[in-house]
């Protein structure tokens, strides 16, 4: 009797086919290639020029004479690969007197670092951050503690205890991470505005951005997915000048230029101590995808750039300060309506679907017993 | 010191990968010149030391913590960029590259992106 089995109990694996490529640089054609980027070979010189060229192109696309009315530029800095590279490129390409053009003139560059004092080793990280920014004498460093989100909110206890309560009352690990990132983003935007900046640069590369985009969709933030690339809040335009560069070329550029990444992050456990969050799972997926199918990551970013939300909403979510669908376009979960009515200070119509889900996680087993959410100060007052 | 049985190799770390190796960025090692068979027997014993063997040797002799942040199976995990004498290991045959004396091999983590 014929059998369809392949090789008995042995696992049939297709051997990886090694592509035969020209070792010459795709740009200059002459030099020996140093880096393979999405199927193309670049020499060291051309790769570095490509990084700078992409950065400047993104800057020119997003900062136009019509949108640039301030002499203050804000740069978000976490100490990671993208934002560290961003500092270097800003210093080299935008601030250096020999490189300044009429189009971009900033008298002040403020580097903003949001840190979490509750994390062990935060003081050591801050020392490294200060040392890193000190290498750029013309930059001003502004340190913003994450618990500032709750300062002046009228809560009992210190802002640090309010931040702890905010996290503790989150229904899931994913919600905790989402909430923390939301606080970080809003603090960057608010601090940029208080410094008088009209533009805030963020250090997300194509790889990081694709992770954020997919995570956003998974978390219910698809309506404002375009805001992950570029957004405007309180008169501050935030965007990612490294959006066309993958993590590989960023890492190679940083290494060849001796740009040091703050290395406390790699072994830092996630806030909840596990890797089960949607964000971490997405990161693992994208990282694996980038290794085997690198062009797919680029496709994710480009495809998401084409997504346009249906309808035009003028309402803003009180918590994340992004546009939200009208109540007629979505239905709040019964759990959220009950919890909000019973415990919170905000009516449900002031929260977008994603923030509502983050606070209640209606599918969670603990939805019925969800503790009352604690809101940051900007959600309690109108100060934008 | 190199001998017929070892090769002098310089290993460097970047992007935070050094934290997994005692927070030391640069290491000079004497790598055995012949490699044992791999666990899955895909590569035979006695072959010249290659990158696959180097990674396994590093795991046994240098890695201090969180093995899963550096290694996946018999290769580095996704998110680790490997440069062999400043050249992408994907252009040099990845794990099959036969290590030469005085080679400089760099492992750069790209896992903390933002």
UniProtKB/TrEMBL annotation, chain A:
Keywords from the named record: Cytoplasm, tRNA processing
GO molecular function terms noted in the UniProt entry: nucleotidyltransferase activity; sulfurtransferase activity; tRNA binding
Pathway(s) this gene product operates in, as recorded in its UniProt entry: tRNA modification; 5-methoxycarbonylmethyl-2-thiouridine-tRNA biosynthesis
Gene: NCS2
Matching Gene3D superfamilies: HUPs (3.40.50.620)
Protein function: Plays a central role in 2-thiolation of mcm(5)S(2)U at tRNA wobble positions of tRNA(Lys), tRNA(Glu) and tRNA(Gln). May act by forming a heterodimer with NCS6 that ligates sulfur from thiocarboxylated URM1 onto the uridine of tRNAs at wobble position. Prior mcm(5) tRNA modification by the elongator complex is required for 2-thiolation. May also be involved in protein urmylation.
Pfam families reported in the protein's UniProt record: CTU2
InterPro entries listed in its UniProt record: CTU2, Rossmann-like_a/b/a_fold
UniProt GO BP: protein urmylation; tRNA wobble position uridine thiolation
GO CC annotation terms, alphabetical: cytosol
Organism encoding this protein: Serendipita vermifera MAFF 305830
Cell compartment(s), UniProt: Cytoplasm
Name of the featured protein: Cytoplasmic tRNA 2-thiolation protein 2
Coiled coil, from the record: none
From TrEMBL, chain B:
Cellular localization per UniProt: Cytoplasm
Matches recorded under InterPro entries: Beta-grasp_dom_sf, Mopterin_synth/thiamin_S_b, Urm1
tRNA processing among keywords: yes
UniProt main location, coarse: cytoplasm
Keyword tRNA processing: yes
One GO cellular component, as annotated: cytoplasm
Pathway(s) this gene product operates in, as recorded in its UniProt entry: tRNA modification; 5-methoxycarbonylmethyl-2-thiouridine-tRNA biosynthesis
Keywords assigned: Cytoplasm, Isopeptide bond, tRNA processing, Ubl conjugation pathway
One of the GO biological process terms: tRNA thio-modification
Gene3D superfamilies: 3.10.20.30
Family named by the database record: Belongs to the URM1 family.
UniProt-recorded name of the protein: Ubiquitin-related modifier 1
Organism from which the protein derives: Serendipita vermifera MAFF 305830
């Amino acid at each position: 009797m014929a059998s369809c089995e392949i090789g008995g109990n042995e696992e049939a694996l297709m051997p990886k086919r090694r592509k035969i490529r020209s070792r010459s640089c795709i740009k200059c054609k002459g030099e020996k290639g140093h880096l393979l980027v999405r199927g193309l070979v670049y020499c060291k010189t051309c790769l570095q020029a490509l990084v700078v060229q992409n950065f400047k192109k993104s800057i020119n696309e997003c900062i136009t004479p019509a949108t640039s009315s301030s002499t203050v530029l804000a740069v978000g800095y976490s100490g990671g690969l993208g934002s560290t590279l961003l500092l270097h490129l800003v210093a080299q390409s935008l601030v250096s007197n020999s490189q300044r053009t009429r189009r971009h003139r900033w008298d002040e560059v403020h580097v903003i670092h949001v840190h979490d004092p509750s994390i062990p080793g935060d003081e050591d990280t801050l020392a490294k951050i200060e040392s890193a920014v000190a290498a750029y004498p013309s930059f001003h460093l502004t340190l913003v503690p994450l618990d500032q989100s709750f300062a002046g909110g009228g809560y009992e206890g210190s802002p640090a205890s309010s931040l702890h309560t905010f996290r503790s009352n989150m229904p899931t690990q994913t919600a905790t991470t989402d909430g923390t990132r939301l606080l970080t983003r809003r603090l960057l935007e608010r601090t940029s505005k208080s410094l008088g900046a009209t533009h805030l640069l963020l250090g997300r590369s194509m790889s990081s951005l694709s992770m954020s985009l997919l995570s956003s969709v998974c978390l219910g933030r698809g309506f404002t997915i375009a805001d992950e690339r570029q957004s405007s809040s309180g008169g501050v335009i935030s965007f990612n000048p490294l959006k066309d560069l993958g993590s590989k070329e960023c890492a190679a550029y940083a290494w060849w230029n001796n740009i040091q990444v703050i290395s406390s992050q790699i072994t830092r456990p996630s806030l909840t101590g596990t890797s089960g969050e949607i964000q971490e799972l997405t990161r693992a997926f994208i990282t694996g995808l980038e290794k085997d199918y690198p062009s797919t990551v680029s496709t994710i970013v480009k495809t998401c750039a084409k997504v346009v939300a249906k309808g035009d909403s003028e309402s803003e979510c009180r918590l994340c300060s992004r546009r939200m669908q009208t109540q007629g376009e979505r239905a709040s979960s019964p759990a959220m309506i009950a919890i909000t009515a019973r415990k919170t200070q905000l009516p449900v119509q002031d929260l977008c679907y994603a923030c509502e889900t983050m606070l209640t996680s209606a599918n969670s087993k603990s939805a019925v017993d969800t503790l009352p959410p604690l809101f940051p100060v900007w959600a309690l007052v109108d100060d934008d | 010191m190199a001998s017929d049985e070892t090769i002098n190799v310089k290993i460097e770390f970047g992007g935070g990968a050094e934290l997994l190796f005692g927070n030391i960025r640069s290491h000079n090692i004497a790598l055995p010149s012949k490699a044992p068979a791999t666990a899955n027997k895909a590569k035979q014993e006695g072959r010249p030391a290659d990158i696959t063997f180097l990674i396994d040797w590093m795991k046994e002799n240098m890695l201090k913590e969180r093995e899963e942040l550096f290694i996946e199976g018999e290769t580095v995990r996704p998110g680790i960029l490997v440069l062999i004498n400043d050249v992408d290991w994907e252009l040099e045959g990845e794990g099959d590259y036969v290590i030469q004396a005085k080679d400089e091999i760099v492992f750069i983590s790209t896992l903390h992106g933002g």
